[in-house]
Write a structure and sequence with these properties.
By secondary structure, this protein is α+β, with helices and mostly antiparallel strands. The protein has one domain. The strands form two sheets. Strands 1-3-4-7-6 form a five-stranded antiparallel beta sheet. The chain has a two-stranded antiparallel sheet with strand order 2-5. Strand 6 and strand 7 form a beta hairpin. The longest helix is centred in the C-terminal third of the chain and has 12 residues.
């Protein structure tokens, strides 16, 4: 993909209900997660476009809880697990729209990845490709 990692920040042991909004947050209030870890990356592609990407690993108590979360999270407009402070990467104000989003479930583990352009004009297809790659990274 010809990406060069500019920066990476990891945050572990976040609280799911605090780190979410909307119906997703309501779900976490009644179905607490066991663990939430996130990583935020800044990349530069071969054309000089800067991209910000995030991966969130949510461990639920059961595969059933993870599947319920996946169904809710995969429905656009129901809320989200929000990326932790992007200011630490110098990308304050970036809004993850859910337009470049991928997810997967593996038993009680639910993985969410999202990307957004930071500078330049990377294609939507490329942003989705990067989200797809991030989504298969192993959990922290």
């Amino acid at each position: 993909m010809a990406l060069r990692q500019l920066e990476r920040k990891v945050k572990d042991d976040l609280r799911c209900a605090v780190q979410s909004f909307g119906q997703v947050q309501q779900f976490f209030i009644t179905h607490p997660c066991k663990k939430l870890s996130q990583v935020v990356y800044a990349f530069e592609d071969a054309n000089g476009n800067d991209i910000v990407g995030t991966v969130m690993w949510v461990t639920m108590p059961s595969a059933d809880d993870a599947e319920q979360l996946r169904q809710l999270e995969d429905t656009y407009g129901t809320g989200d697990v929000t990326p932790f402070i992007t200011e630490i990467l110098g990308v304050a104000g970036i809004k993850f729209t859910g337009q470049h989003y991928r997810s997967r479930r593996d038993g009680p583990l639910f993985v969410i990845s999202e990307t957004e352009p930071l500078h330049g004009r990377p294609s939507d297809e490329f942003l989705l490709d990067v989200a797809t790659v991030l989504d298969v990274l192993p959990p922290l």
